[in-house]
Amino acid sequence: SAVISQKPSRDICQRGTSLTIQCQVDSQVTMMFWYRQQPGQSLTLIATANQGSEATYESGFVIDKFPISRPNLTFSTLTVSNMSPEDSSIYLCSVSIAGGLDTQYFGPGTRLTVL
Amino acid sequence: AQTVTQSQPEMSVQEAETVTLSCTYDTSENNYYLFWYKQPPSRQMILVIRQEAYKQQNATENRFSVNFQKAAKSFSLKISDSQLGDTAMYFCAFIFRTGANSKLTFGKGITLSVRP
Fold first, then answer.
1. In chain B, whose CA is at the least distance from the CA of A43?
2. pLDDT tens by residue, B57-113
3. Residues with Cβ < 8 Å from B94, sequence gap 6 or more?
4. Among the four residues A30, A95, A114, B41, which has the most C-beta atoms within 10 Å?
5. What is the mean pLDDT of chain A?
6. Contacts of B50 in chain A (CB under 8 A)
7. Three-class SS of residue A10?
8. B91 and A43 Cβ atoms separated by less than 8 Å
């Protein structure tokens, strides 16, 4: 498995601002993933972040709204840009040790509230 | 595309009793993994158990076991000797073991409450 941390654990933000969420893992991993979990809902994949290449976004998510960085094999950031109340969610990062086709381990999540 | 269905939105069980959470999935592939994840109020997603589709033997982890029926595409989770700490949302999930576009697909989840 892997130990994953996220910062911040929660935040309350104003409409129109941006928030960057950090995800740190204790070992080198090929693939990291970012998910959104809206209140009372299941997880929806936002994008897959590979080191050294552009993130791959899922349908309905765009880079301008959710820019992602992956500077090395243990760290990634997700920015939620120009926020609106509809962006209020839990944002989770996960990692796959075996290249994405195996078990994913999750960070503790970031609870975002947009006023 | 694969789908994962958890038809029960919530369940309740008395402490120390046994409860079974249902999950069905739909795929035409043969090579995949199935998972149960637990999300307590702390919101951390915790891996409970994993089943490899090519293995006929049901996976077991302490008080947690699965009933994997591949032909019926059913993957239920049994929790024995339920404890208060088992109170959480439980998600069934699925991933293909091959394919460039394979991604982890979750069911809608079920809220389990363990009563003292």
1. B106
2. 999 999 999 999 999 999 999 999 999 999 999 999 988 776 666 788 999 999 999
3. B2, B4, B25, B27, B32, B33, B34, B35, B104, B105
4. A95
5. 93
6. 103
7. strand
8. yes
